# Entry
Amino acid sequence: MIIGLDHVAIAVPDLEKAIKRFAEDFGIEYKGCESVVDAKTQTAFFPISGTQIELVHPLNGEGPVQGYLDKKGGGLHHICFQTDDVEADMKRLTEKGYIFLSDAPKPGAHNTRVAFIHPKCTDGVLIEIAQHPDEQH
Ligand code: CO
# Structure
């Protein structure tokens, strides 16, 4: 079941510059950076109003975020809903005809398990669902 808006992710070509923008210029609390090797991304999180802004940047210049930057130069990349049971939501949504980018959940930032819905199923918006470790069943 989807239980909240976990984060909104922005793909950025210059991570340090973007962190400074959100932390110093906008004055939003910076919670730190984490590499997600499985997704070939570096992530930086800024909690605000019960959700978070996530900056995403390619790890070592490769992976899907690099492809996005090459094509678009940066921009709103995905939104992420928090779920209390990622497998159950994958099953429920697959039965409704949604296509996921992986057959099973993958490791995300903060020890989450995540899955992405293909944007062609959602009017062009990449949607992630994430289950936090304290929500594991
Ligand atoms: Co995300």
